[in-house]
Amino acid sequence: MADHIASTAQDASPQTATAQASVELSDAAVRRIARILSSEPAGTSLRISVEGGGCSGFQYKYDLVTEQEEGDIVLARDGASVLVDPVSLQYMEGAVIDFVDDLMGQSFQIRNPLATAGCGCGTSFAI
């Protein structure tokens, strides 16, 4: 089950957003992100952004960061903290961030309802 916890960073202090979070974290993603962050310095978050590029036009980028930017959406639960900037959020509305561990390997996967096409790598998409 995905969770709808979000806040917006403004003036360096997060504020609680409305209950209608536009990006969700699955339980598997929360567990994996919390595990990754547990070995990082305090205050580290996973930043997920959308960039131009990849074989389908847009691609997801994952970075570990210690600074929030103004306007960031903050998804936080059970030791997991994810930041999404407002521009990337436009391309991720309604998306679910998941973590998959199967025979093909381990990876974060984003189920994005706005994506009209994707490629086999799982990080590139078109809108």
Automatic annotation (TrEMBL):
**Which domain of life does the UniProt lineage start with?**
Bacteria
State the residue spans of region: Disordered. 1-20
Instruction: Give the signal sequence positions.
Output: none
A GO molecular function held by the record: 4 iron, 4 sulfur cluster binding
Database matches in SUPFAM superfamilies: HesB-like domain
List GO BP terms, alphabetically: iron-sulfur cluster assembly
Q: Which residues form the Core domain?
A: 23-122
Gene3D superfamilies, per database record? HesB-like domain
Q: Name one Pfam family in it.
A: Fe-S_biosyn
- NCBIfam families named in the record: iron-sulfur cluster assembly accessory protein (TIGR00049), PRK13623.1 (NF010147)
Q: Quote the protein name from its UniProt record.
A: Iron-sulfur cluster insertion protein ErpA
Record the organism.
Answer: Stappia indica
Encoded by which gene? erpA
